[in-house]
Specification:
Layout: H1 15-22, H2 32-42, H3 55-61, H4 66-84, H5 92-122, E1 129-134, E2 137-142, E3 151-155, E4 163-175, H6 177-180, E5 186-187, E6 205-206, E7 211-223, H7 229-239, H8 246-276, H9 282-299, H10 304-321, E8 324-326, H11 331-337, E9 340-343, E10 355-361, E11 364-368, E12 379-381, E13 384-385, H12 390-404, E14 409-412, E15 418-421, H13 424-434, H14 439-445, E16 446-452, E17 460-467, E18 473-480, H15 482-487, E19 489-494, E20 497-500, H16 503-518, E21 522-531, H17 540-543, E22 547-556, H18 563-572, E23 576-580, H19 585-595, E24 605-606, H20 607-611, H21 615-624, E25 627-629, H22 633-645, E26 650-654, H23 660-665, E27 668-672, H24 678-683, E28 686-688, H25 693-733, H26 735-738, H27 753-764, H28 766-771, H29 795-819, H30 831-852, H31 868-886, H32 888-894, H33 901-911, H34 913-929
Parallel strand pairs: 9-23, 9-26, 19-22, 23-25, 24-25, 26-27, 27-28
Antiparallel strand pairs: 1-2, 1-3, 3-7, 4-5, 4-6, 4-7, 8-28, 10-11, 10-22, 11-12, 12-13, 14-15, 16-17, 17-18, 18-21, 19-20, 21-22
Helix pairs in contact: 3-5, 4-5, 4-8, 4-9, 5-10, 8-9, 9-25, 9-27, 10-25, 11-25, 12-13, 18-25, 25-29, 25-30, 27-30, 29-30, 29-33, 29-34, 30-31, 30-33, 30-34, 31-32
Length: 930
């Protein structure tokens, strides 16, 4: 009998009504047979897992790219031409392009596998069990076997295995941060609610995936598996569609555009050749087809997909060394494009560790510093260390008193790290006490005799301690809500003395509480009283009267130290940071103010307030508000959707189950590796292994640098390929002017298909890849994020690509004409030598273009030698070109002939024309921008 969403919520029903509805008994629970039948009917208490994608499908997914499709078409055309020729020799063009395509797929597949393995290494493999009452006997069973109607017996340390309605609660506190985002453990109460409240306020309900940090309780299971609140989030996750990254969209656009351009140019050239040439045989038709293939080879940057994958993979490895695990290569660049980071508060911006920040007593107050549960830090007054005296005595009584009325434990684990067991709020007293160096004396001095536990009605807890330093006299120590304790106090601690709790002192104590509450601290007060030998320890209510008030502490989950500077860096980069949390609005606003997310006069908007807004008002709120508190998972997803509608590229961080749908919806979801749930890690595209928000900003910087380098090698590859296309196109169209005719009168292509492929292999691989490794030469965090509508290759860049390609083609064709007889410039060399010279000019033009392409505006001579990989790549490419011209078997393979020293000088000079043209163009552009 699984809970249906349309039924009355159990939180607004009485315990008796819920027990009757689910068909169980509160004292004996279900019988084993009933539990077995319900398990068979409703299924195990698990969330529906995503079906794993087989390895072969993940490998084939690497081919789903428009540029790859274009390369596959080029392979097909090459194979068809080879077949028409009679299967003579080997289809070198097709084989080399196929090798590049398959190599690119293998690289992407291997990198994705690495990311999956890293995610798996972060997974927690423990099986959760629950204490359940069946057949009148309490036993522990796997939580996966829980069914609706089971009676859960809860105690400190238990993981809650299913959604359940409380029947009884005794000082029961549940940590619900992973589900609601609430940083503090929630005190539960079995009383019926008047209306259905947000998850964080349903005090009589407990939820799957949360944990008991204090007290005991009894509850009846009302929902299991996908019917739980966690299951609702999982269903939202299933319905969430992942969009393409900006880089994927851009590469897809380039691929489609190149495909259209290749088809149009190839068609024009083939038709032109057919019209101008005499087609007398099938061999002539084959030659025309080969011309079309060579043009396709020239137009398509074969190395682009592989170089993109390698550059992104290297970026992924660099991020991994900085504790950022990227699950998908294309997500690397997305981070660099992010204009908004939506972040959870608890555990992401804060440490998820409660800490006493201020302590008020009658003589003043102190500030406490430190990091989380590490018992190190200072206790200071006005920035100076607290010294012995009246205030010091009061502070010792306050912090040691809070440590006595306490059931938490602070200890070093086997890894040498401090950890707690119990209520984080109580642990805060233990940590603060150690900063005064009095913890050991307190442990030796006092011995617990009796405990009066906390309850939601009393709002306080007390312990009775034996004081070994005062003849084993009994002392009652109380800790609780300030208003409750003050009502029970008639005296007040002042230094080492005890004085009357006058109206003036009481007013000061209340003002202290107001000051702490106004600063978003959670407040707890401490009081005590000696117990006379004649007093009856069974009269507990009487013992908790006429106490001595000591003071009040302010407790908060403090921000991580590194987050503030990281947010400043994000703001400098034009990135908006938005906090989205399930925590209290006052606490959320305080943390946001401390971190610089909002100004001191700004506040938070709650989920209930968002629900009252229409769609237009909601969009305006998202535009103007940077802190959202008490929000549900649906609110988080709506906020992300609204930001994306406004054209933002959204990164969403989080660790709880409640963050998962928004993480999947966001352009890049960033999950926490340590505190993150497995559901969240599965939904995220990136995982922070150290849970450090500052790592996100480092990843943004790396993403921006990668994007800059992608633009560099795109500028280089496209302008180089444009040079090849225009060389073939203009060479065919202007064959009469250049003398590019065979002895039979047919049109001759200026470059052979194999020569074009060689150019692409030599100049498009090593130099382009080296350009993708260019070190950061500009302050990438000093500029605003690029708009989503802004193309990776904008109009000015396309114009530069076209102009540089035109200069390359003209230099190449002029060189061919210079050596070839019958053109505008009368030469006297053979077609083979003229073609070899043009071939060499085009190679060197592209090598010179490496240095041009590193910047749109800066001179090629600026920081020319900072990238040693580029220098090595250019040098190696030049040596390979020398080899293809002068090595005999390469002469045969690529239709080249040796060149003289003078001819080499001519080729290098003509190739350098690209460099000088670009320098003049950049100078003009710089002057226009002044």
């Amino acid at each position: 009998m699984a809970k249906q969403r349309g039924e009355t919520d159990p939180s607004v029903q009485s315990p008796e009504a819920v027990v009757q509805e689910v068909g169980t008994h509160p004292e004996t629970g279900l019988s084993s047979s009933q539990a077995s039948q319900r398990l068979q009917k409703d299924g195990p208490n698990v969330l529906r897992a995503a079906v794993p994608v087989p390895g072969w499908k993940r490998f084939l997914r690497q081919f789903q790219d428009p540029l790859v499709y274009l390369l596959l078409i080029a392979i097909l055309i090459s194979v068809i031409a080879w077949a028409v020729e009679g299967w003579v020799g080997w289809p070198i063009d097709a084989l080399v392009i196929l090798l590049i395509v398959v190599g690119n797929a293998i690289l992407g597949y291997v990198q994705e596998n690495k990311a999956q393995n890293a995610v798996a290494a972060l997974a927690k493999m423990t099986e959760v069990t629950s204490a359940v009452l069946r057949d009148g006997v309490v036993s522990r069973v796997p939580s996966t076997s829980l069914v609706v109607g089971d009676i859960l017996m809860l105690e400190e340390g238990d993981a809650v295995g299913a959604d359940a309605r409380l029947l009884r609660a005794s000082a029961l506190k549940i940590q619900e941060a992973s589900l609601t985002g609430e940083s503090e453990a929630v005190m539960k109460d079995a009383a019926r609610l008047e209306r259905v409240l947000p998850l964080g306020d349903r005090l009589n309900m407990i939820f799957k995936g949360t944990a008991v940090v204090q007290g005991t309780g009894k509850a009846v299971v009302t929902a299991t598996g996908m019917d739980t609140e966690m299951g609702s989030i999982a269903q939202m996750l299933d319905q969430t569609v992942e969009g393409q990254t900006p880089l994927q969209k851009e590469i897809g656009h380039i691929g489609r555009m190149l495909g259209k351009a290749v088809s149009a140019i190839a068609l024009v050239v083939v038709v032109t050749v057919l019209l101008l040439s005499e087609i007398n045989s099938l061999s002539d038709v084959i030659n025309v087809l080969l011309l079309g293939v060579s043009l396709a080879v020239a137009a398509v940057p074969e190395g682009l997909p592989a170089i993109l994958s390698v550059v992104l993979a290297l970026g992924v490895q660099k991020m991994a060394r900085r504790n950022a695990i990227v699950k998908k290569l294309s997500s690397v660049e997305t981070l660099g494009s992010a204009s908004v980071i939506c972040t959870d508060k608890t555990g992401t911006l804060t440490r998820s560790e409660m800490m006493i920040g201020q302590a008020y007593t009658s003589s003043g107050y102190t500030d406490l510093s430190g990091v989380g549960y590490i018992p190190e830090g200072s206790v200071s007054v006005d920035g100076k260390p607290l010294e012995s005296g009246q205030l010091h005595a009061e502070q010792v009584a306050l912090l040691s008193g809070g440590s006595l009325a306490n059931n938490a434990d602070l200890r070093l684990n086997k890894d040498g790290e401090w950890e707690i067991r119990g209520d984080p709020t109580e642990a805060a007293f233990l940590v603060a006490e150690q900063k005064l160096n009095v913890a050991e004396r307190r442990k030796q001095r006092f011995e617990r005799v009796l405990e009066i536990p906390f309850s939601s009605d009393r709002k306080m807890m007390s312990t009775i301690e034996k004081d070994h330093e005062h003849d084993d006299m009994l002392v009652l120590i109380s800790k609780g809500a300030p208003d409750v304790l003050m009502q029970r106090c008639t005296k007040c601690r002042l230094g080492m003395d005890v004085v009357a709790f006058t109206d003036e002192l009481r007013a000061k104590a209340l003002a202290d509480v107001d000051r702490l509450s106004g600063a978003a601290y959670r407040t707890l007060s401490v009081a005590y009283r000696p117990i006379g030998s004649h007093e009856d320890l069974d009269q507990l209510e009487a013992l908790e009267q006429n106490m001595i008030f000591v003071g009040t502490v302010g407790i908060i989950d403090p921000p991580r130290e590194e987050v503030g500077p990281a947010i400043q860096e994000a703001h400098r980069a034009g990135i908006r940071v938005i906090m989205i949390t399930g925590d209290h609005p006052r606490t959320a606003a305080r943390i946001a103010q401390d971190l610089g997310i909002i100004a001191e006069d700004e506040g938070a908007l709650t989920g209930e307030e968002l629900d009252r807004l229409d769609e237009q008002a909601f969009l305006q709120a998202v535009d103007n508000v940077s802190v959202f508190a008490r929000v549900a998972p649906t609110h988080k997803q709506r906020i992300v959707d609204a930001l994306q509608k406004r054209g933002h590229i959204v990164a969403m961080t989080g660790d709880g189950v409640n963050d998962a749908p928004a993480l999947k919806t966001a352009d890049i979801g960033v999950a926490m590796g340590i505190t993150g749930t497995e559901v969240t890690k599965e939904a995220g595209k990136m995982i922070l292994a150290d849970d450090n928000f500052a790592t996100i900003v480092s990843a943004v910087r790396e993403g921006r640098n990668i994007f800059d380098n992608i633009r560099k090698f795109l500028r280089y590859l496209l302008s180089s390929n444009m040079g090849e296309v225009l060389t073939v196109f203009l060479g065919v169209v202007g064959a009469g002017l250049l003398g590019l005719y065979s002895e039979s009168g047919g049109v001759v292509v200026p470059l052979m298909a194999t020569q074009i492929l060689w150019i692409n292999l030599v100049t498009d691989s090593g130099p382009a890849l080296a350009m993708g490794l260019d070190p950061q030469t500009e302050d990438v965090m000093a500029r605003k994020p690029r708009r989503q509508t802004e193309r990776t290759i904008d109009g000015r860049m396309w114009l530069g690509v076209l102009l540089v390609g035109l200069v390359m083609s003209l230099a190449t064709l002029m060189t061919i004409d210079f050596y070839l007889p019958g053109g505008m410039l009368q030469g006297n060399e053979s077609l083979e030598l003229a073609r070899t010279a043009g071939f060499t000019v085009l190679v060197f033009a592209q090598l010179f273009n490496c240095f041009n392409a590193r910047s749109e505006l800066s001179s090629a001579f600026t920081n020319m030698f900072v990238n040693r990989w580029l220098l090595w790549a250019v040098g190696l490419s030049a040596l390979l070109q020398v080899a293809v011209v002068h090595v005999d078997f390469l002469n045969v393979a690529f239709n080249t002939v040796p060149l003289s020293l003078e001819q080499w000088g001519m080729c290098i000079l003509m190739g350098s024309s690209v460099l000088w043209f670009s320098e003049i163009r950049k100078f003009v552009l710089r002057q226009l921008e002044k």
